[in-house]
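Retro notes, structure queue

What went well: the backlog is down to a handful. What didn't: a couple of records were mislabeled last round, so from now on we paste the full input next to the output in the thread. Example, using DNA-binding MarR family transcriptional regulator from Petropleomorpha daqingensis:
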Amino acid sequence: MSTESHEAYVRLEREIGLLLRRSRAIQTRLAGELHPELDGASYGLLALLQDAGPLRASDLVGRLGLDKSTVSRQVASLAALGLIDRAADPEDGRAQVLTPSAEGAARLARIREARRARWEEDLSDWPASDVATLGELLGRLNRLGEAREAQRQTQGQVQPQP
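Corresponding output:
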């Protein structure tokens, strides 16, 4: 590997690390805006349900790379706050599927719209093609991570990797 290539990966790691740290702080703040008793991790779970739901709790475990007990606590918290609904799984009546409640979806939509408007404001001097390219590249990076997580799940490894 060339020095230039190595430095590119060093910078990538540094910038993604910074992005993730900021993301965790923002997620915690957004959770508080969504509901004063909501924690940041549960906010992420609610957002995933909105984007990919309805899902079983076991699906959340796999997609988030968390253990069952953590997901169970987050689901219980979201249900207690009235932000998710549970229903019988149409494929297996013994299991439950989770979806955002009307209230949870409405609150999440308000926050996401404000966040999108903030991105639009912050990146207003970027060419639209750069914004589109950034979205495409982040999507590719996310799909790579999802594929890696799915591979780990099929190999029976359930502990999240850095």
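Agreed that this is the format going forward. Reviewer comment attached to the example: The radius of gyration is 18 Å.
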